[in-house]
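Q: Hi! First time doing this. I have a protein sequence and I read that you can turn it into a structure. Is that right? Here it is:
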Amino acid sequence: MFDGGSSACGRRSQTSLRTTSRFSRPRSAPDTASSADDAAEPSKSEFRRVLADEQLGVPLEDALRVTVRRMANRDLDQVAVIVVLQRDAGANSAEVLDQIVDNIRSRQEIRRLIRVLTAQGRMAKWIVSLLPVALLLAISLINPGYMRPMWHETVGHLFLALAAVMVVAGSIVIGRIIDIDV
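A: Yes, that's right. Below is the predicted 3D structure, encoded as structure tokens:
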């Protein structure tokens, strides 16, 4: 699943959709080709493929569907749907694509906000995971006799295994709590 988490990837996606928006406005073929050249890689080569397929007689929505599968981009999937709607209903796809670009920007803004708001949870996950191990090592170094039963007796081994399971479980639970899909 494409989540658009990185800002560079998100900017490329927005630029690509702006380019696609320019495709859907009435233009001549050379103008459309220059719009494909304005996009960043890998979108640039993908749009060139779409244009080449269209020039060979492949319907635009089919060419875009193949591109969506190849790039695995949820936003580009919306573009393919809009192209089909535009062909069937005659809607103004340029305006709709501009709205999709705005929606992508909003979604990226929400992702950044969620990342900031879950920073404390991510830090807690690391603390819950590493603090017990650090304390075990510190106590073992400071007073090795104190931890001897944990290393040399069966009950100690059971408690160490239980502690390891609880640390891993705590880390997984905290990770699920802070993992928010947008």
